[in-house]
Amino acid sequence: MASHEKNLIAARGKMLRDQLRARGIDHPGVLEAFSALPRERFVPPEHTEDAYADRPLPIGYGQTISQPYIVALMVQALDPRPDYRILDIGAGSGYQTAILAGLVSHVYAIERIEKLTEKATAVLASLNVTNVTMCTGDGSMGMPAEAPFDGIICGAGGPDVPECWGDQLTDGGRIVMPVGGPHSQVLVAVEKHGDRIRRRELCGVRFVKLIGKEGWPED
Ligand code: SAH
Predict the structure, then answer these.
(1) What is the pLDDT of residues 116-154, one digit of tens each?
(2) What 8-state DSSP symbol labels residue 19?
(3) Which residues, 6 or more positions from 37, have their beta carbon under 8 angstroms from its beta carbon?
(4) Could you list the active site residues?
(5) What are residue 186's phi and psi, to 5 degrees?
(6) CA distances from residue 122 to 111, 132, 134 in whole angstroms, order as listed
(7) Which residues line ligand 1 (CB under 6 A)?
């Protein structure tokens, strides 16, 4: 094995230990999914050496791949189970999509920027991830044609959780998304029980904008 490959595997192990386990990520499946997935494949080549850094990285088109810990926190908060169908809004690099694909039965992923959809689709195919349906479009409207979902997860921040997402969720299903202003948000986890909604706040975050009909207008 080439030494730079060894370095990346070591960096992945260190990320698992120092960024995920040490901060309270304890879902065995989530840890296993992070341990199995080469994050360097989802970042631009000039960032390969930083692939496991404790921060978001640029992926082009003004967008970012989220910090590993935040992806783990969001995926854990979704309570993923093997028979679940999940909607991933703002697929970006496809990293979070691939983590989810290792945990659930099928992931429907939607991304607004076609070039990112194309790149993510190619990376997932090269890693033999087959339980993902990826498309380009405005995820702020959800994906009514494939609803209901057992969980909806969004990697972009909006002014509030779009109401139509709740209608596309199974009973007992969860939504995880950053909610707030365009420059800072709170990560919220919403659980649907019949007509009742339970809302939890996880932490303060900074995400790129959810741009669309039920999100922010385009600049
Ligand atoms: N989880 C992703 C994060 C990507 S950043 C990853 O691991 O790489 C958020 C993404 O949301 C950006 O790629 C952005 O283009 C996309 N986005 C913003 N508004 C959107 C919308 N209305 N529908 C779908 N994708 C959207």
Answers:
(1) 999 999 999 999 999 999 999 999 999 999 999 999 999
(2) I
(3) 95, 98, 99, 102, 127
(4) 66
(5) -115, 135
(6) 14, 12, 11
(7) 63-66, 89-90, 92-93, 95-96, 110-113, 116, 138-140, 155-156, 208, 210-212, 215
